[in-house]
């Protein structure tokens, strides 16, 4: 199954995080999407007089004096120590990479039905829009690496890569906003 499942098998930290359950008390983690992206913390016990809530847990973040509740539907977490960053990961900060991952997973979900792929151009336009709106400095080969890691068929490489380059170039030309080069950083860092 493409999308989240294939992404998790390829080492995508966002896909792995989206598939995991509430970690055990004492587990160290890093928030990899959402409001507190990049923060590290430890899973702690619920207060004695509080009923645990499914898909949520209390945590003590390293740089916060009070406890913080993690809601797994809103924030993705990565269990520490984290595995190495996959070689196909784009050179983006965590939040930008999480946003790109979300658009890629949506594209896979919209384009894969049953056992067949049927390219959903609207979902691909959303990937191009996400990259351009955030002015992400990634090239078509880097985008293809992310798509391929999430299970997009090899036969679409040329078509999607060419469309991405032409679409982004058209947006840059018509609006005059180029990708921001300083956004190229070590993959999956804060």
Give me the oligomer status: single chain
Which overall shape is indicated by the principal axes computed on the Cα atoms?
globular
For the largest sheet, list the strands in their spatial order. 4-3-2-1-5
Could you give a short account of the major beta sheet?
Answer: 5 strands, antiparallel
Helix and strand pattern: HHEEEEEHEEHHH
The average pLDDT score comes to: 91
Query: What is the CA-based Rg, rounded?
Result: 18 Å
Count of discrete domains: 2
Instruction: Provide the structure class.
Output: alpha+beta
| % residues in beta strands | 5-15%
Secondary structure blueprint with pairings:
Layout: H1 4-9, H2 13-18, E1 28-31, E2 40-43, E3 56-61, E4 68-71, E5 77-79, H3 94-111, E6 112-113, E7 116-117, H4 121-133, H5 140-149, H6 157-175
Antiparallel strand pairs: 1-2, 1-5, 2-3, 3-4, 6-7
Helix pairs in contact: 3-4, 4-6, 5-6
Give a short synopsis of this structure.
The chain has 190 residues and is α+β, with helices and mostly antiparallel strands. It has helices at 4-9, 13-18, 94-111, 121-133, 140-149, 157-175; strands at residues 28-31, 40-43, 56-61, 68-71, 77-79, 112-113, 116-117.
Main attributes of the structure:
190 residues; alpha+beta; SH3 type barrels; 2 domains; five-stranded antiparallel sheet; two-stranded antiparallel ribbon; 6 helices
């Amino acid at each position: 199954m493409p999308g989240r499942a294939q992404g998790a098998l390829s080492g995508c930290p966002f896909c792995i995080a989206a598939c995991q359950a509430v970690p055990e008390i004492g587990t160290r983690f890093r928030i990899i999407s959402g409001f507190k992206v990049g923060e590290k913390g430890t899973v702690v016990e619920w207060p004695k007089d509080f009923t645990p809530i499914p898909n949520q847990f209390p945590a003590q973040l390293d740089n916060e004096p009070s406890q913080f509740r993690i809601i797994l539907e809103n924030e993705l977490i990565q269990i520490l120590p984290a595995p190495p960053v996959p070689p196909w990961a784009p050179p983006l900060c965590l939040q930008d990479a999480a946003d790109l991952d979300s658009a890629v997973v949506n594209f896979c979900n919209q384009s894969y039905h049953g056992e067949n792929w049927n390219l959903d151009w609207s979902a691909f336009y959303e990937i191009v829009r996400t990259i351009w709106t955030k002015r992400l400095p990634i090239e078509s080969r880097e985008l293809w690496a992310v798509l391929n890691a999430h299970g997009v068929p090899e036969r679409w490489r040329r078509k999607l890569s060419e469309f991405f380059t032409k679409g982004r170039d058209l947006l840059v030309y018509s609006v005059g906003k180029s990708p921001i080069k300083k956004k190229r950083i070590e993959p999956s860092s804060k």
